[in-house]
Each structure stands twice: as structure tokens, then as C-alpha cells.
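S.,

Sequence below, as promised.
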Amino acid sequence: MPCQPVFSSHPSSLGSLIFSSPCFFGNNQQDKLLLHATTISFSARNQSESTLSIVPNGVSVVDRPINEEPNSMEFDRSNARSRVQNLVDRIRALPIYERIRIIHVFEKEQAFENLSGFNDVLLALFIADEPDLALNLFCSNISSYNLMPDSWTFSIIIKCHCKKNDLNEAKRVLENMVEIGFLPSVATFTVLINSFCKRGKLQKAIETLEFMGRVGCKANVQTYNCLLKGLCYVGRVEDAYEFLMKIKKSLVKPDIYSFTAVMDGFCKVGRSDEAMELLDEALEMGMTPNVVSFNTLFNGYCKEGRPIEGISLLKNMRERNCIPDYISYSTLLHGLLKWGKIQAALGVYREMVEAGFEVGERIMNTILRGVCRRSWREEGLLKDAHELFEKMTRNEGCAIYPNTYGLVIQTLCVAKEVDKALMYLNEMVGIGYSPPRMITFNSVIRALCSEGRVDEAVSVLVLICKEERRIPSRICYNLLIHEFNRQGRWLGSCTVYGAALKRGVIPHKRPSKQAIIQAGMSSLLLID
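The prediction came back faster than expected:
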């Protein structure tokens, strides 16, 4: 059952709030004092003063009565924010299991002398992600302090219910608020509408908007932006576009966030060209696109397999003095790598590094693997692969994945840099990487045999055999036997062949007939 606070007609008194919270750690922490008694002075605020409202998704709007001047109490608002932030910091410093004691402390100390202090604590609990405590404080304590909630109190309670995803209760509080004579601000309505939209309950959001109009509260552009995002969230992109066109013709003009919301909807359904047209339209209206607008397009182009168009978009972005952020570069880079545009990805990677961004290890590994594979056909990329690999080995925070390490070794073998390949293989095994794939060993053995270095190739075979339960592939034995035969080293080919049979592997290649005779192993060859 929702709480039903008892309202008192007694006026709030001036005074100070003694925030004395003697919360301790448990006995295993030697009962060390966590918070010292702290006195925070609260000056009484007029119930009609302006206070900052926090709306989800970073939308910040102001709750204020209709007749109040916008800048009338700027200093008071600044002080209120400072007090609330101080409380938030203290609450967050408490262990989770100790925070519930805050309510008991306030009850014991009879702390609240005015509504201003009470609202500040409610807001602090909300910001500190403790909506349950805020609701408990409101339901159990407000009447005991002879305080009567105002519009701001109810606004905080509605936000707490929204944070708990109890939207029906939030709507009930809003309706009750109107019934007892309060007019919710546009910010309060927007919080609830946004919460409905984020959860796909679009019909509820529209009903709240209609209720908003009936009580005489006019929606602003932030309210409409929430509905635009909600329409796109449920896949109604065409409806979102039509709604945007209606907003353009209304007294409330859309902003760049309105256009970005619909652009995002178009990009998610593979209609990035239409999203680009919307951006052009916003530019014609004199709006300045932000980094989110461009990032939306990057995401759309990459999903559609058109990441190269993101290169020109990146240039367009810089021309408009919009600085790309980490998401801009990483989205474009991921798209270029996904669709095999390695050269372009390298260019974006270098630009990203020059801009001062740290490229994540996952992307670094993906780039390096892509460059390695492409270098098998384009020799010019081998140098780039070397540089990337060396940079990653120097950076302790960027781990080289085992499959990346193995691909680097294979690339060196293809490029006939066998000494480096052998060195990296020994390093890979020596530093405790997960066992390299058999294809990596095969590549090194093949490269060594192609240069006639069969004895070193045998040492690689021994390296495989040292690993428990690891059996060399038939390819390893075939390569070694073939090279021993080619060099006329008959005893070597017979030894390798015998080792293969001992491990249950039957090579396709066999020691030559002459080798078998010389080694006295003619029984191994079936003579027709």
C-alpha cells in the first residue's frame, strides 16, 4: 500500500539541521568512526523559490512558478545545490548496509526544523541512488515534523518512484498532487513522460502529456524530445518524423536534440541517408550539430556496411568545429575493420592516437589482425604490422590476445622473416600464453624447412611435444620428412617417421626407399 502522509498546517520554522550521523563499521573493523557529527545550516526557503530539477538523460530544466522571474534566486539555488551535494557525498561515503540507519538518526535527533532541509535530504538520497530510503523518510517522518510538502517535495517523490520503475505509483502521486491544489512543473511531467518512453510504455506517456495539457501546463521542447525518442524506441520512426514536422510548425521549436532523436531512429532501421537529410535540414535552420548527432550517423553507416562514408563525415565534422570524441573514432574504426577496410582503419587509428585518445586493447588486437592478413597480399603493410605489434608489447595495459600473437608469427613466416617468427614463438610459449594454435607451429616449421633449416624445425616439433596431451599434426611430420628426404638425410627422416607412429600419427610422407634400406628399417615399407 502506498504511504498516505498526514499534512500539517503549521508553518515551517527557521533554524539549522544538525546532521549528526554516528555510523560505525562492524566489530571486525574495530568500530572505527565513519562519520563525525557535522552541522549543516539550512536557511528557510520560500515555497515558491526556484530549484533545479534533475531530468533523466542529462536534460536539465527549472521548476518555478509562472510569475517568478527566471534569475530571481540564482544565489539561493547555488547554495541549495552545494548543500545537497555535500549530503550526497556523505551518504555515498557510508557502507551500503549502514545507509538505512540514516532514517533512524533523523528520527532520534528530531533533525528537521523546516521544509527546505527536509527536501534537501530527500533529493540527496535520490541522487545517491537510495530512492527507497527517500520514500521511507517521506512516508514516516514528514508529518512528525509538522511539515507540509510542497510542489518540490512531490516532484522528488515522483522521481524516486520513476527510479524504482514504479511508474504507476509515480503517476498516482502526480494526480494526487493536482487534486490537492499543486500545479506540477513541466520538469516534473517530463520526468514521468521520459520514464514511460524509456520503458516502451508510449500510450502511458501520451496520456500523461494529455493530462499535462488539461491542467494548464505547457510542454516544452524537452518533453517533446522524450516522446520522439520513445516513438523511435518502439520502432515508430515514421510517426516520430511526422511528429517532428508538427513541432516545427508549433510555437515550441525543435532543437538539435529533437533532430538527433529522429536521426537515431532512422539509422537503427537502415535509413541513414534520410538521417543525413535531417541533419542538413537542421543546419539550414541554423542549428549547430553536436557530437551525438554525428555519432548517430557513424553508427548508421557502419551498420549498413558503408563505413567509408564515415570518413567524409569525419571531415565534415571537423569543418564545423565539432570535435570527434572517443565514441566517434571507435565506432568508425570498428565499422571499417568489420567490413575489411584496413587501410582506411589505419588512417583513422593514427588520427585517433594523434587526438590523444587511448585505443582499447580489443580494437588494437582487431587492427593488428586485420593488418597482418592484408599484408599477405600487400607487402607495404608489413611495416605497419611491426609498428603496431611493438607498440602493444611496450604498453603494459594493452594485452596481445593469443590468436593475435599467433597471426603475427604466421605473418612473419609469410614475409620470410623466419628468425623473428621463431623468436616470437619461443617468447609466446615462454611467457605462459595459452598454447599457440597448431597452424602457428606449422607455419614456423614450413618457413624453416623452406630455408633448409630442418634441425631448427625439429626443435619446434620438440616444443610441441613438451606440452602435455599435445600431439603434433600430420602436417608437421610431413614437412620434416619431406625436407630430410630432400637433403638426403635418411636417418633423420626415419627418426621423425618413427616418432610420428609412436604418437599415433601416420604421415602421408614416408622416408624414401633408399633411406629405409640404409637405416635397416625395410619392414616399414610394404613391397609389392
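The beta strands are 17-19, 38-40, 51-54, 60-63.

Coffee later?
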